[in-house]
UniProtKB/TrEMBL annotation:
InterPro entries cross-referenced by the UniProt entry: AB_hydrolase_1 (IPR000073), AB_hydrolase_fold (IPR029058), AB_hydrolase_sf (IPR050266)
Domain of life: Bacteria
Protein name in the entry: Pimeloyl-ACP methyl ester carboxylesterase
Organism: Sporosarcina newyorkensis
Domain AB hydrolase-1: 27-126
Classification of source organism: Bacteria, Bacillati, Bacillota, Bacilli, Bacillales
Length: 266
C-alpha cells in the first residue's frame, strides 16, 4: 500500500492505496472505528490487495490525520470525496467498523450515487428511533467518563474489551497508545457529538450487509444490529470467534464474506 495525503483548510488527511495493473474506477473503502486507525484493516489489505483497488485511511482526528479543525461528518465526507477524485474512483463499496459505520452512513446520505454497497461491522444505525434516551445519555457523556481513567489502564482495558485474539488486542493497544489521551478524548467527543445531531435514518439504495462478532459485548451493539436488520430486512451475519473488532479477530471468515459481497455487486 502506498501512503498518500490530501490537504484542506481543516488539516491534512492521510490514506493508503494499492496500484493495480489495470485501470479501475471501483474501490473498496475501509473506515476504521473510533480511536482506531487504518491498520485495523491490515488483514483485509493482505487478502484483497491483488484483487481490488483498496483505500484505507485515517479519517480526521485519528492516526496521522491530526490535528484537524472543525470536525463534522460533512467535512469528513468532503475529505473522502477528494480522495476518490484524486484516485479517479467513481464507485465504491464502503466498509465501516463501529463509528466508521457512522462515517460510511453519512457519506452514503450525501453521495449515494458513489456507493454500490455497504458492510457494517459492529456498527449501529443513524436515527434516534433505535435508541433509548438512557442509551443516548451514555453516548453523550462517554468522553467525560473516559477522562477519569488513567490512560495506560484505558488502553489495556479498552483493547481487551473489543478484541478476542492476542494479535488483534496488541494491534489495538498500540493504536490507542499512539493516539494519546488528549486526542482520544477529542476524537470521542467530536464524533459522538456529531452522531447525536443525526435525527433520521439513512435510506440505502444499495446492497447492505450487517455483521458483528459473536462475542461483541460493546454497549448494545448486538441489539441495535438485530433490530436494524429485522426492521429493514438487511442480511445479518454473526462472525464466529470474534469480538467488536471482528474483521481482525476472525479475518478469515470476514474476508470471505467481504469478497463474496463485492463479487455479488460487480
Amino acid at each position: 500500500m502506498i501512503e498518500k495525503k490530501i490537504q484542506s483548510s481543516e488539516g491534512t488527511v492521510y490514506y493508503w492505496t494499492n496500484e493495480l495493473d489495470v485501470r479501475n474506477e471501483f474501490a473498496i473503502v475501509f473506515c476504521h472505528g473510533l480511536t482506531a486507525n487504518h491498520t485495523l484493516f491490515d488483514k483485509q489489505v493482505q487478502y484483497l490487495s491483488d484483487k481490488y483497488k483498496l483505500i484505507t485511511w485515517d479519517w480526521p482526528l485519528h492516526g496521522k490525520s491530526r490535528p484537524y479543525t472543525n470536525f463534522s461528518f460533512t467535512n469528513v465526507n468532503e475529505e473522502l470525496l477528494t480522495i476518490l477524485e484524486q484516485e479517479n474512483i467513481n464507485k465504491i463499496v464502503l466498509v465501516g467498523q463501529s463509528a466508521g459505520g457512522y462515517i460510511a452512513q453519512s457519506f452514503i446520505r450525501d453521495y449515494e450515487d458513489k456507493v454500490t454497497g455497504f458492510i457494517g461491522i459492529g456498527t449501529t444505525p443513524f436515527g434516534k428511533g433505535y435508541y433509548r434516551s438512557s442509551e443516548l445519555f451514555w453516548i453523550k457523556h462517554y468522553s467525560t467518563i473516559a477522562r477519569l481513567y488513567p490512560f495506560s489502564y484505558y488502553c489495556k482495558a479498552g483493547a481487551k474489551a473489543i478484541t478476542l485474539t492476542e494479535e488483534a488486542r496488541k494491534s489495538m493497544y498500540n493504536t490507542l497508545l499512539h493516539l494519546g489521551k488528549q486526542d482520544m478524548l477529542t476524537a470521542t467527543w467530536a464524533v459522538y457529538d456529531e452522531f447525536l445531531k443525526v435525527e433520521d435514518e439513512v435510506q440505502f439504495n444499495c446492497p447492505v450487509l450487517i455483521t458483528y462478532g459473536e462475542y461483541d459485548k460493546t454497549g448494545y451493539i448486538k441489539k441495535y444490529c438485530n433490530n436494524w436488520a429485522e426492521k429493514r430486512g438487511y442480511p445479518l451475519k454473526v462472525i464466529r470467534n470474534a469480538s467488536h473488532n471482528a474483521n481482525y479477530d476472525n479475518h478469515e471468515e470476514f474476508n470471505e464474506l467481504l469478497d463474496n459481497f463485492v463479487q455479488s455487486i460487480l
